Amino acid sequence: MKSQVLVDFIADFTPCESVHAEQELVALTKKPSSEKWTLSVDGSSNIKGSGLGLVLKSPQGDILEQSVHCNIRATNNKAKYEALITGLNLAKSLDVKNIQVLSDSQLVVQQMNGFYEARDQRMSAYLTKVKQLQSTFDEFTIQQIPRSENARADALASLGSTTTSGSKLIPIVQLMSPTIQEAEVLAPVDHGRSWMEPIFNYLQADILPGDRLQQKLQNFASSTENFIKNRLQDLI
């Protein structure tokens, strides 16, 4: 009798296999959350080196921090682009689909939003790289924030620029080479003839402004006119 009671108890309270199968099917086919992740980025460059700071926050409030030490020389603008690219790659590795980027760099944000033109060759290459990464997300926005509101990413960037060894809580990642290689640098952009170009041509190659033959003819005509005037004055 006791044996039968135990068997009946297990039978009554054991879920049906079909219920388990349905739950697993729902979990596999469930669409990923459309809630946005937030990525705060910053880059720092000084005489000690360059560093990148990343703060990735999930919709549930979980925070992933990363400090990157760059074994390359980079200006502040390049470091900020490197931080943005590294942060987007990190988000991609976590299968993030919707992301909002926060940065205190006016140059990077305005170039990404199309309000500033990337005239420098390397800046153009960085912008192209970020645009390619942007296309891999379902939703992507980038917003400029005051530096005071980006203090966490700024502190991580400063940490990466001054040291190569991290703590147990914040390990330092090493960036051994720039994201943009020389082969990816775009061709120089033609912005029209500068007013200084004729001066440089004359100083470097002795090229007169305008057509050289025309200039010589003008000089010859001017000298001939002066010669005739002088001769007339002598005759008078």
UniProtKB/TrEMBL annotation:
Pfam families: RVT_3
InterPro entries: RNaseH-like_sf (IPR012337), RNaseH_domain (IPR002156), RNaseH_sf (IPR036397)
PROSITE patterns: RNASE_H_1
One Gene Ontology MF term: nucleic acid binding
Domain RNase H type-1: 33-162
Domain of life: Eukaryota
Protein name as annotated: RNase H type-1 domain-containing protein
Organism: Acer saccharum
Lineage, opening ranks: Eukaryota, Viridiplantae, Streptophyta, Embryophyta, Tracheophyta
